Every structure is written in C-alpha cells, then in structure tokens.
C-alpha cells in the first residue's frame, strides 16, 4: 500500500544511496509535483564539498511497476547523454543523471515496500511554476520539440508503457463516466455544471486516437507530461536546460506534448486559480509556443499533425479537466491536494480554458496556419 506516512522510511532510503562517510546537512521536501514525493538532500562529501541530490519516492499506486519505469528512465537518459555529448553539450546538466544505490541498483525498495530513486541535483537551474515571459515559454517549446526530435530514432520497443492509455482521451472519458456513477453525492452536487460540460463533449474524445488507428497520425516517442515545471532553466542564461520528470516518456502523439504545454503555460491563470475571470487562453503565448515547438521539431511534424495542433491543445486540456474532476468525485486519491475542493478548482480552470479555446478557435487556427508549410 502506498500511504502518506511511508515517508517515515526516508532515512532508510537515504542510507541505501549515500555512503556513511558523506555527512547529510539537510533534507527537505521540494518542488510542486502532483505525483511523487520529492526531497532535496544536501550532503558534505569526505572531500568537504557540498553535493545535492533529488531523492524521490515513486508513487507506486499510479506507476504500478517502478522497476520498469526506472528501466525506461535509464534507457532514455543514457541515449540522450550520448547525443548531447556528440553535439558538444554537457550531459551532466542537459539530462537527468540517475544515481545508483550503494549496491549498484537504479532504485531502492524500503522495508515498507516504497520505491525510491535518486538524481543528481542540477545546480544553477530553476524551475518556473508559471510563464513569466513569452520568451521563457518559447524556449520551453523549442526544448520540448527538440526532446522529441532527439528521441526520434530511439528503439521504441525498449520502452515499457508506465501508465497504459495515459493520453487516450476516450478511455479517460470512460473512467470519468464511471467516476460520475460512483461519485460521492455531495461532491457530485457541487460539480453538476462541470459534469454536464464534460459529458457534452464526448464526441470529440476519440478524434486523435481514431486518426492514430487509421494511420493518419504517426506514433512517436513523446514526453507526455510537458508542463512548464517539468523543465529546468539555466539560472545564469535563463535558457531551457533540461527536460525532467521522464516517468511518462512512452510512445505517444506529438499533439499530446504540444497540448499539455499549452494547457498549463498558455493560460493566464494558475492551474488551480479560483477566480475564473483570471483564466483564459493567452493568444500571444499560444503563438510563441507554436512557433517554438515547430522550430524544435525541426520539420519533423507532418502536415496533419500541424493541422491538429489546436485539437491537441483542446483535448489535452479537456482530458486533464476530466481527470481532476473524476479524482474530486471519487475522493482525491490520485493528484496531491492541498486544500478542500482543490481538484474541483483545477477541473474548473481546465474547462474554462477549453471554453475559451472554443471561443477563440478561428484565431487559434489562424496562428497555426501562419506557421504551416
Ligand atoms: P513529479 O512527478 O511529482 O512532478 P518531478 O520529477 O517533476 O516530480 O520533480 C518535482 C520537482 O523537483 C520539479 O518540478 C523540479 O522543481 C525539481 N527537480 C526534479 N528533478 C530535479 C533535478 N535533477 N535537479 C533539480 N531540480 C529537480
Ligand atoms: C501530473 O507529475 P506532475 O505533477 O508533473 C500528472 C500529469 C498532469 C499534471 C497536472 C503521471 O504531473 O498527467 O497533467 O499532474 N502526471 C501523472 O498538473 O499523472
Ligand atoms: Mg513534475
């Protein structure tokens, strides 16, 4: 069982990764991820140097097979490391480095069955929780596009599917319908308007998966969780530096990566903003990301993919909304929540954005058309 109190085992995990002659100066919770438990460790080495690490307890309720997940992460980072080196880059900063346990393994299972992993902390980097300038967002787009391009020849058969049907919106819709049927009635009453909004859009849920099945969209190796806080920026140059959170790197559609970035970064409000008047799609940010993503993919996207970028944005936003709402209706077991009705607030921002995308559909398409050919 994956429980919150299991972090009591953190010292056991630290001892599995860090040798006795390193002095632990500090450990603290870190970052704003919704899924794993992330800690920053500061150590003093025997040479009296400070070294930082990111220690994470992987959420094994969500990722059912953490050893397979770590196999993916090691394969992908080893592959990226070689390409980055061959291009004259610095792999220590431009991709994650998985630290081994003292026994030489890529992960550790503690006595309460929690799975842990450790990464070198990327120094002089920063993580943005919200877009602060068009340039930041453009840079993140180039980096996510480039990430996909770098993995274009990665041997797909080596990747495990860490969460099956992760961005299969039609299958997410079915899960959502089940959540509505089994919902806590008080919560369902609070979310009536949102439930109707979600059910009304059933028809569109299979648009992308149908095109994939018909062979009209190519399956690629994609990141699948391209929100802005899954990229580190160089604190000195403010350039996009390293794509992190590789837990869901799997075969997918380019539209998933494009769409998920838009839903998080091109919104004028935070993902959990409660004042919905502050939430809309910023067309300038949409344009900056579209331009950057196409540049990062460097001509590898097909005309069909480009044509469907608006649909990718809308469906990823809608999908995230129904996932938040389903979690709210069934008791908040998936996404970490920090206040009452947090997941409902999150679902509301996603649906507000979907509605705004629908209202601005012609403008969005015009922007994408501008960058076609
Ligand atoms: P989650 O899956 O819960 O979102 P992430 O892997 O995204 O977890 O990590 C959470 C946060 O920790 C990130 O948003 C980032 O701020 C920070 N982080 C993760 N890995 C590193 C790293 N190697 N160096 C520096 N910061 C990191
Ligand atoms: C989760 O792990 P994190 O916080 O980067 C989730 C994404 C959602 C996102 C919403 C494995 O991402 O799918 O889009 O929250 N990750 C997983 O903020 O479910
Ligand atoms: Mg993350």
Features:
373 residues; alpha+beta; Phosphorylase Kinase, domain 1; Aminoglycoside 3'-phosphotransferase, Chain: A, domain 2; 2 domains; six-stranded antiparallel β-sheet; three-stranded antiparallel β-sheet; globular; binds adenosine-5'-diphosphate; binds 2-acetamido-2-deoxy-1-O-phosphono-alpha-D-glucopyranose; binds magnesium ion
Compute the number of structural domains. 2
Would you list the SSEs in sequence order as H and E? HEEEHHEEEEHHHHHEEEEHHHHHH
Q: Report the sheet with the most strands, covering strand number, pairing sense and barrel closure.
A: 6 strands, antiparallel
Shape: globular
Query: How many DSSP helices?
Result: 14
Low-confidence stretches: none
Ligand names: adenosine-5'-diphosphate, 2-acetamido-2-deoxy-1-O-phosphono-alpha-D-glucopyranose, magnesium ion
Tell me, rounded to a whole number, the average pLDDT.
96
CATH architecture of the largest domain: Alpha-Beta Complex
Query: What is the CATH first-level class name of the largest domain?
Result: Alpha Beta
Number of strands: 11
CATH fold-level assignment of the largest domain: Aminoglycoside 3'-phosphotransferase, Chain: A, domain 2
Strand content: 5-15%
Cα-to-Cα separation, first versus last residue: 51 Å
Rounded to an integer in angstroms, the radius of gyration calculated over CA atoms is 21 Å
Class computed from helices, strands and strand pairing: alpha+beta
**Corresponding CATH superfamily of the largest domain:** Aminoglycoside phosphotransferase (APH), C-terminal lobe
């Amino acid at each position: 069982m994956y429980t919150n109190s299991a972090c009591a085992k953190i010292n056991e995990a630290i001892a599995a990764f860090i040798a006795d002659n390193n002095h632990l100066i500090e450990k603290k919770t870190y970052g704003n991820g919704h899924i794993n438990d992330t800690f920053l460790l500061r150590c003093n080495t025997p040479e009296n140097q400070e070294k930082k690490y990111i220690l994470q307890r992987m959420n094994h309720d969500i990722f059912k097979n953490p050893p397979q997940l770590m196999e993916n992460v090691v394969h992908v980072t080893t592959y990226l490391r070689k390409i980055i080196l061959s291009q004259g880059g610095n792999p220590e900063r431009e991709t994650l480095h998985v630290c081994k346990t003292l026994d030489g393994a890529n992960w550790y299972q503690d006595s309460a069955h929690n799975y842990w992993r450790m990464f070198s902390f990327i120094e002089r980097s920063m993580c943005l929780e919200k877009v602060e300038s068009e340039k930041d967002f453009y840079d993140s787009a180039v980096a996510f596009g480039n990430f996909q391009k770098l993995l274009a020849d990665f041997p797909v058969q080596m990747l495990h599917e860490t969460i099956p049907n992760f961005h299969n919106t039609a299958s997410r819709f079915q899960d959502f319908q089940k959540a509505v049927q089994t919902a806590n009635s008080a919560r369902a009453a609070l979310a009536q308007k949102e439930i109707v909004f979600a059910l009304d859009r059933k028809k569109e849920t299979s648009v992308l998966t149908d095109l994939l099945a018909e062979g009209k969209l190519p399956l690629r190796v994609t990141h699948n969780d391209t929100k802005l806080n899954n990229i580190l920026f160089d604190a000195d140059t403010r350039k996009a530096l390293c794509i992190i959170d590789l837990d869901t790197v799997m075969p997918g559609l380019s539209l998933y990566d494009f769409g998920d970035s838009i839903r998080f970064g091109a919104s004028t409000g935070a993902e959990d903003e409660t004042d919905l008047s502050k939430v809309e799609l910023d067309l300038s940010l949409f344009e900056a990301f579209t331009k950057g993503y196409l540049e990062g993919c460097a001509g590898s996207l097909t005309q069909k993919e480009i044509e469907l970028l608006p649909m990718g944005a809308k469906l990823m936003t809608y999908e995230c909304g129904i996932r938040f709402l389903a979690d709210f209706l069934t008791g908040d077991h998936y996404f970490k929540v920090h206040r009452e009705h947090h997941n409902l607030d999150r679902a509301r921002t996603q649906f507000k954005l979907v509605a705004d995308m629908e209202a601005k559909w012609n403008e969005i398409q015009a922007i994408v058309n501008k960058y076609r050919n």
